[in-house]
Design goal:
two-stranded antiparallel sheet, 4 helices, 31% strand, globular
Length: 153
């Protein structure tokens, strides 16, 4: 991922689901889980970027290019790359369908700040990296569980 270069950070988490899931179903499930709804509430309160499940569904269907604090940076049939309103973080969602299963991929990219002419990740990033990794895994697991319970929601 291009965001891992020049002092940035990128990660990717993967899980497999024993059923076929479309990319739109994954995106909708991801952004409408109970866990992500907590993040949406925080964003609505802290940065005045409210969002709804209907907006998540429209984003998933390709009818919307912005959602909560993010906008679409790139989209293909099986991938979505979102950029936050400050252009510091990216979120990436991808599906790899198989004949009877689907791999779900979720990744993040964090762009470093320029400090005295050098690109650096700040102390806040280092302090929160462990939480970020745990939270990313929990978000993916939450989306997987939602899809496993009811593929059609």
């Amino acid at each position: 991922m291009k965001y891992a270069r020049d002092g940035g950070y990128a990660d990717c988490y993967v899980t497999e689901l024993p059923l076929v899931v479309t990319h739109a179903e994954f995106v909708e499930a991801f952004y409408t889980t109970w866990l992500f709804k907590l993040e949406r509430r925080i964003l609505a309160w802290l940065v005045e970027k409210p969002s709804t499940d209907a907006e998540a569904r429209a984003l998933a269907d390709g009818a919307r290019d912005a959602f909560a604090a993010w906008s679409v940076e790139a989209r293909t049939g099986n991938q979505l790359l979102m950029c936050d309103f400050q252009s510091r973080t990216r979120s990436w969602l991808m599906v790899e369908p198989g004949p009877a299963s689907t791999r779900l991929l979720f990744g993040s990219g964090i762009v470093p700040r320029v400090d005295r002419g050098k690109k650096r990740m700040g102390p806040g990033f280092r302090a929160l990296l462990g939480f970020h990794k745990l939270y990313s895994r929990a978000l993916l697991a939450s989306a997987r569980a939602r899809l496993a319970r009811s593929p059609t929601f």
